[in-house]
């Protein structure tokens, strides 16, 4: 960007924004230019706007459209695929300060929130009303609802409750140019017109900037019971997951941790996880009086697939500790080196092949791999551990990461179950979607963003 | 259409289709040219193609695109808004014969079906595997999955389980011109690219023709318990519904029948419904051992809103009978005259105002109105009864129908909760969506159907 264009941009932005909202300080920009994805390109932004209200977002998108300047929407930048990374000369448009819960309505069982509300804050606020907002991405303590919607975030709840998009009823969003569009509804049902709400969910900031979200809530679940099962091989554990679902069950949580993950978690924080096991499953039923029967039924299936031991948590505190252990997966593996987290989702019946394949790729590469995740959904997070200072290891880590996505596709799966495409998985998108769907994607993008200013280079490239 | 164009069309269609698939017999065409919507325009079709396989659909959409001939996709033509009505010179493209259940997969808890499979046939087939496909539109015995997806059909299950689109994981569809696109996935999760699956759901045949559907299933629910509560006013019943939800409950079914509906159902088939009541609520919990506690909790709320009596069904047979009574709503009201069925969905907290408003509109018009429906969703089906042979009554019925939609919008609702826009509600769509969303709709339509041959005049006009 030439200096002239740069100063024009800043002048034009300043004309419609309070001083506290706009920053072009290089240190501030440097602190906001990337999300949590490793090995992804990061550009040099021209400005950061921390929007406090709808008018700020409209102003930025009006000026940017007119000047042809790229805009990169940001939430808490906890994303794992580079979707919030700066591109050169862009305006970083954060909606983190638009963080009010506008209302929680028990009659409609909905919440209306601004995009900067943190998932954990919303979850706690609705619990206080006897309601439940299930989506619980690993980042839930810090990530924002706007970011969760933009990436269609998942979590451990999904096996029973679904993903973020399943709870989004309506949106207010701003289009490039500054026009405001309302999509969807606040009512329980509605089929008037095309589902633009769902089109914006998971569009990773490439179609519009979300400024308000109407979320569906469900009644608080009954008391949950959690159990741990240990296995002599990770393939047995994977087959046990398929077996539970084939028996017609639907646990409220079904996670797999393999041995490298178990050891890393214990090393990160002594949790007493069973290090002698090749894999463990964490399973939960939240059906109150039915839960102990559910756990017994799961245990029976696990036993038929070689489970060594099945132990039920004694109380809510022990159950919370087990879930916390699972949430430590990424920081714990991070103690071993840099971590490239994959996010393939395969049919549950193919999961044993996936974990075998990941182990084989790790062995061949000489890098440490771990293969844990949301097994009940077939959505695993194979991790490749590498030394970021060693170019040879970086190269091999990239190769293993890529081979895992190829394997996921070959098994009938997807390259991303919940993390999004961003920059990191862009090269594989066309393979997954095929040429006709890719053409439709490009044309839909053009409908919303004819000048291509919104998060350019992300998702579609 | 000139005779020359007509014969060219038939020749071109014939060249790629077996004789048994193509018909231009005027009597056959006349029998297939409309759906179940009253007072909607019906054109004169040029041909009917009863596709038996993907290739037939591709051929029709290839020829039609080339010749610029409109195509109207059809399922069982049970729709209530004219979406499947012929337009002049069109090819009626029925997928009713593509009716195979390709597979039911208990490990993935999915079914893969062709569009012509009847909802009831799928529902029964998955029950035999211990699984459950919830969407249950009133037409479920005859309507097809393809039609259910195209209209995003609802039913009585929605209050707990959601609508058809909530169960659609992936689609195969044919675009104008004949290209095949696959959207979505068969895995439990996936966020690669835009949600084109959801965009096609509820698009009423205006974007693509659906040729295969991958559906998510859930485990069969526990034993259900059903109860009936009677009220001295329909407003009390409506407030009781809001009260149940506000108390944090989520019944598996929550339907309201007003006095005109109760009387019509009893007259249609003696069901012993309580004729002395101004309204009744039908409520169900399908949580097995929790159900009796649930029903007691609902009864307590109902009592606080003036319920006269709350009676629990003695057994499954009595429960089925009550649900059957509810399903007779439309045929029963049809005994009284022609019926214009509205489908507004309002916030539950505004439902009492809706039922009051409908009664007032009926009284002013001098026509019989009834106001029953999926109260748990705020999705009511106000019905206007009229004599189709009396032009004055037809005119007044149209006015009341229109005024009910205006009222629904004024109460913060939508013009259609589950029936779709079709032809019947087209004039109100722009009011509900607003100019920005309407422009996006038109442009999205153009992406999929640049020549405007698919179901022209429907939804967007």
TrEMBL record, chains A, B:
FAD-binding PCMH-type domain ranges (all copies): 41-220
Keywords: FAD, Flavoprotein, Oxidoreductase
Cofactor(s) demanded: FAD
GO molecular function: FAD binding; oxidoreductase activity
Family that this chain belongs to: Belongs to the FAD-binding oxidoreductase/transferase type 4 family.
Name this protein carries in UniProt: FAD-linked oxidase
Organism annotation: Nocardiopsis ansamitocini
Lineage, highest ranks first: Bacteria, Bacillati, Actinomycetota, Actinomycetes, Streptosporangiales
